[in-house]
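Researcher: Good morning. I'm working through a list of sequences from a screen, and I'd like to move beyond sequence-only analysis. For each chain I'm collecting a predicted structure so we can compare shapes side by side. This is the next one on the list. No need for commentary yet; just the structure.
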Amino acid sequence: MIVKLIVDGGDMKPGPAVAQQIGPLGINMGKVIADVNAATSGFKGTKVPVEVDVDPKTKNYKIKVFSPPTAELIKKELGLDKGSGAAGAYKVGNIAFERIVDIAKTKQSGLLAKDLRNAIKLIVGTCVSLGVLIDNKPAKDIEKDIDSGVYDKEIKQEITQPSAEKIKQLKEFYTAVKEKQDKEQKAIAEAKAAEEAAKAAAATAAPGAPAAGATPAATAAPGAPAAGAKKEEAKPAAKKK
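Model: Good morning. C-alpha cells for this chain:
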C-alpha cells in the first residue's frame, strides 16, 4: 500500500493527518517519521512530496522522495513564505538567472520539457505567477530574452551560480523596488481609508439636517408675511354722505 504525503523537508511531525494515514497500517509511526526526516533533510525549509510504500504482510516499507514543487524551490531560494497576491503589480523577490538554471536541472526529469532550455522556460513561467523578478526584469521579459539568445551561454554551459557581485546588485535593485512598492501601497491604503471615513461621516448625518454653518430659517406664523416683505398701508374709511 502506498501512502502519499507532503511534508516539511527534514521536519515532518506527528499529527492527525499523518496518524490517520499511517496508524491503520500497523507500523511504527515514530520510526516512519524519523526515516522520512532523514530522507528529506536536504530539502529543509521546503514542502516535499513523499511516498511510503508499505507491505501489509511484513510491515516493511520503502520511502521515495520526489522533487519539491517548482514554486517551493523558488520560494526557498528567495526566503519567501508565499508569492505575490498581485503578481503583475507587486514583486516579491529578484532571482538570478543562474539559479533558474539550477532549479530547472533539479526539476527537469519530472517536467514535460524536451531539453534544459524548455525546462528553464517552465521555471520562468512559475516566476511570472509568483511575482518574482529575474535579473532585475519582469519574468515575462526573460522568456523573450531566452528566445532571442541572450542566455545561450548560461544554458549551454549550465551555469548555476551567479557571482557575489551579481547577487549584491540584485539585492540592491530589489530593495529599491520594494521601497517604491511599499510607498505606493501605503498611499493607496490611506486614500481608501479617507474615502471610507467620508462615506461613514455622510451616512451618520441626520436626514434633512442643514449643512454645517447654515442659519436655520425662522418658522413663520400662519398667515404672517414673509420675512422682509413690506406691510400694506391701511386705507382710510370712506365718508358717509
